[in-house]
Amino acid sequence: MSLGGIDLVVLIASLMVASTPIMLAAIGELVAEKAGSLNLGVEGMMIIGAICGFIAAVETGSPVLGFVAAAAGGAVMALLFAFMTQVLLSNQVATGLALTLFGLGLSSLLGQGYNGIKPPPTPKLFGSLGDLPVVGPIVFGHNWVVYLSLILVAGTWAVLKYTRAGLVLRAVGENHDAAHALGYRVRTVRTLALMYGGACAGVGGAYLSLVRVPQWTEGMTAGAGWIALAIVVFASWKPWRVLLGAYIFGGVTVLQLRLQAAGIAIPVQILSTAPYLITILVLVIMSARRGRAAQGAPASLGRVFHASH
Amino acid sequence: MTGTGTEQVLLTVEGITKAYPGVVANSNVSFRIMEGEVHALLGENGAGKSTLVKMIYGLVKPDTGRMTLRGQAYTPAEPRAARASGVAMVFQHFSLFEALNVAENVALGMENPPPQGELSARIRQVSEEYGLPLDPSRLVGDLSAGERQRVEIIRCLLQEPKLLIMDEPTSVLTPQEVDILFTTLRQLSAEGRAILYISHKLEEIRTLCDEATILRRGKVVATCTPREKSARELAELMVGETLTPPARTGKAPGPVALDVTGLSVNSPNPFGTSLKNVHLTVQRGEILGIAGVAGNGQDELLLALSGELKSDSDAVKIDGRGVGHLGPNARRAAGLVAAPEERLGHAAAPDMSLTENALLSGAIRKGLVKHGMIDWVRTKTFAEGIVKAFDVRTPGVGTAARALSGGNLQKFVIGRELSQDPAVIVVNQPTWGVDASAAAAIRQALIDRAAAGAAVIVISQDLDELLEIADRFCALNGGRLSAPRPVQGLTVDEIGLMMGGSHGMEVAHAHA
Amino acid sequence: MLTLEKRPSPSRFWAGVTPILAVILTMIAGGILFAAMGKDPVEAILDIFWQPLFGDNADYFRAQLLVKAGPLVLIAVGLSLGFRASIWNIGAEGQYIIGAICGAAVGLAFYPADHWYIFPLMVIAGALGGWAWAMIPALLKNVFGTNEILVSLMLVYVAENIQSWMAFGPLRNPEGMGFPGSRNLQQYPAASNPELIPNTGIHWGVVAAAVAAVLAYILLKKHILGFQIRVAGQAPRAARFAGVDPKHLFTICMGISGALAGLAGLFEVSGPSGQISTNFNVGYGFTAIIVAYLGRLHPIGIVLAGLLLALTYIGGELAQLSLGLPSAAIQAFQGMLLFFLLGLDVLSNYRIRVKETRK
């Protein structure tokens, strides 16, 4: 099975890998936004996750510990954002930007001396099953983080839709004053949602530095966090569509890389703009479908909550 | 008093005081509610009613004082605890979630809701039992104001409350819907549930309530049985002074100043109401009152007239000239001024000074901007003129708008528009949340402007206000405007039908 | 228990004091960070904030201060207008790059001709380039309602790729022995932006920044457009009531900030940096966001904040030489500054009260 010299099975398998970091960051951000917090610091949390995971994995030799450290690093960053926006009531847009700028700087600082090192490999989960034709590479050929990301999407969907906690979270994002009047702890809910978002972004970042690249370079997230934010919009705040969105972007990225490798007559730099241009295109298509209600954005998204009594 | 027969005290409130910086919301308030009683809490805006019930519902903690519920000490730390003790509350501004469905909204108000399927069945059952039919799967955003209130009431009833607090429940209902609500409340009372009913509407309280506690400036000034008092006596207890109704001079109206023909605009709000083929004319010297239950297109009508929403050129004419396609400033130049309902954030920028807020809508007609440059000296003089002429209580015109009390800011906003010598005035809810003396001053100012030859439209949900100052009367219902009728000789039933009757609600089945 | 209580009107005192407090807190936190890295915190802070102004070679460094503050102020003034109106152009870095490329391309097209009008044409091209790049998110927002934050940011990455393509392709110096990068404009007098007064660091970009700050001040204080920008940011519905067309305002604010960022790019590429290379941009477009906030979105504040952040750049380089402090430390340092500032803002909008927790 091949298409213009590109093997379709390999393409699908590699797009699943390419889309994993963005999917993780996006599903986390979706939960934070569903609770009403707009955290534009995804890029910063991702890159902190990338470096924390990298350091932990290199120092302990255990990729699993690396991912745990990445989740913790991302969550701590998110906690910082939560403290700023929920307690000190700072502007969410500006604070998100600060988180990104700070994260980029801090990660470079932490990463001094880790350039050019190879991290311990993250093994494939199903070993030889991955050698089966077609289903092998696509279904069984991945490491555990890819499966974890799929489980997180499914789990997030189920929790938001079917559980009491999910209902409360959606209620807080929809109308924080009403939720407060009913006695729900708006700040606590939002802080927890933000930390989940940070942990997911951190794991996504670590996936870049530990699996996808795999090494540490400054600014290696290269806008992946921002694309994750765009995917949440694309997904209309619906978990399953995050999966779809991430796969589309993964597909575009992989295709673009394959075209580069195939030595097509378009300059490499122009091809490299594809993921960003596609992101813009998708945002335009989504926003052209007018109306907040039609798009499904939480009504309290980005608004400052201050209980006046 | 019907109820269980045995007279038992349900809730006592003793010596409750709650102070906020600069204001004492409640000072040494005491009263008690019997089981099965419908108890009124009567007072003006700002008298401290809301703070008091928030303390009973656990949203606010009192500074001093104590409460008991069925003889036990009652100190709810949060609404959850209040609900667990059998106290439920229906809010004035609904605590509902528009993007969630009815069943989800109900579940959020309960401690241990049953699974969705079971809950939906119970909602249907209870809602029919009390004559308040509801479809559990509908989105709340798509419901009318009356239906939303039903969601809140059902949410409370499913928890079998001993005390139901209702904060100004009738402000969103037509007269017919009020009757249905009262039937339901009486049914609840007959079942032995007590109701704490908050209102400033005197006739309602005389019709419905067994006992009344009257608050003024945070203090209890009287406790009485409302049926034994006249509305006038209650009003004087509530306000603390004798109010003079606005004076009108009967003058023949002049030529038509505003002519609206076939006006249809889409609401900018996803859950708003679009205007459908609205016709109206207003003559100089006349006041047209437009009634309607909240959310029936009032905001959209104001926006379409002020120019914030545009339409076909000839759909809106000022002095015969089509202005429907023009924006707010061009319409101001043509002579139309408007005062929207929302004072902070729409009619005024909260963090800006009164001077800056005077510029907001006065720039055009008062000539405050030349070649793009602002004349701050003239703007300040204009603002000071408004403050003086309309008795706005403020330390100065440099004060931020949000530092003013609701009544004072409203006087400033109305004063700003009326001071521009307009041909057409459109106001939405001019006295909403304003104390009685400020309200009287605002109404008088509108009447005076009409007498001076302006055409005035007053959009209001306060029927008494409209009947008091309007010459002609019509109502918005689902974005359509009824044909105007002279106010004289209009009956409450006719008004109710213009407002949409009972909006498909049914009278409660007589179980009790 | 501490609770927050909204002030009736924002405190002017705290609005003025918080930036200073934020700088002090950043020094303390930065010192802790440097200490954790095994550097002497006092020396590091002195190197960053004191040495460039009063240490050895202070003359050189003071000139550098203006060179670096120029673009920061120019961009930040433009951004501040938008930020005040809640228009979030965070892609100034991209507009900066495109402005530089357009301006440089015009200049290089004339090479080696010598006409007086070449540089003015480059200035116009630079401003237009930045403006056009900013019009993309503006148009998409106005026509489709697309979020300008994400679009303007995505366009930064696109611009960086275009920049790299230009350096390798169309604008590569034909006499550059195959190395990426354009001709050096400093060696082409008709197209260069030289130091106007020797040893001051003042070039046309610095002049433009000063002019922009003055004009912005007048705009915000006296002009109806400035008033409309302020209302639109504080109360969008009140702005519409006042007759402000949000789309019109959006186009204007994006356009101004884009054009100023483009100008900054042009002045940089024709002056201090000299050529379009793969990495001639050093993140001024992002740092300018910090400058705008630290300056309280006020033109005078922005000038001061621009100088301060220029100082951290220079001091950072100095500390890199003397202490081996990595260059990334400054970026983290700047990020912290913005954090402290945003966090401390609570003091100007709210009062903090101590409340007894009741049993």
Fold and architecture overview:
The complex is a heterotrimer of chains A (309), B (512) and C (359). Chain A contains 14 helices and two strands. Chain A is mostly helical and 309 residues long. In chain A, strands 1-2 form a two-stranded antiparallel ribbon. Chain B folds into two domains: 231 residues, Rossmann fold, CATH 3.40.50.300; 243 residues, P-loop containing nucleotide triphosphate hydrolases (Rossmann fold). In chain B, strands 13, 16, 19, 20, 21, 22 and 23 form a seven-stranded mixed beta sheet that branches. A six-stranded mixed beta sheet of chain B has the order 6-7-8-3-9-10, with helices on both faces. In chain B, helix 11 runs parallel beside helix 13. The chains are: A mainly alpha (309), B alpha/beta (512), C mainly alpha (359).
What is the compact description of this entry?
The complex is a heterotrimer of chains A (309), B (512) and C (359). Chain A has 309 residues and is an all-alpha fold. Helix content of chain A is 70%, strand content 1%.
Secondary structure: elements and pairs:
The complex is a heterotrimer of chains A (309), B (512) and C (359).
Chain A: E1 2-3, E2 6-7, H1 8-34, H2 42-60, H3 63-87, H4 92-110, H5 135-140, H6 144-162, H7 164-174, H8 176-181, H9 186-212, H10 224-234, H11 239-261, H12 268-272, H13 274-288, H14 292-295
Antiparallel strand pairs in A: 1-2
Chain B: E1 9-20, E2 23-34, E3 38-42, H1 49-56, E4 64-69, E5 72-73, H2 79-84, E6 87-90, H3 102-108, H4 116-129, H5 145-157, E7 163-167, H6 175-190, E8 194-199, H7 202-208, E9 211-216, E10 219-224, H8 231-239, E11 256-265, E12 275-283, E13 287-291, H9 298-306, E14 316-318, E15 321-322, H10 328-334, E16 336-339, H11 354-362, E17 369-370, E18 373-374, H12 376-389, H13 406-418, E19 424-428, H14 436-451, E20 455-459, H15 463-469, E21 472-477, E22 480-481, E23 485-486, H16 492-498
Parallel strand pairs in B: 3-8, 3-9, 6-7, 7-8, 13-20, 13-21, 16-19, 19-20
Antiparallel strand pairs in B: 1-2, 1-4, 4-5, 9-10, 11-12, 11-14, 14-15, 17-18, 21-22, 21-23
Helix pairs in contact in B: 3-4, 3-5, 11-12, 11-13, 12-13, 13-14
Chain C: E1 2-6, H1 12-36, H2 41-49, H3 51-54, H4 58-84, H5 92-110, H6 118-144, H7 148-168, H8 204-222, H9 224-234, H10 236-241, H11 246-270, H12 284-294, H13 299-323, H14 328-344, H15 346-349, E2 350-354
Antiparallel strand pairs in C: 1-2
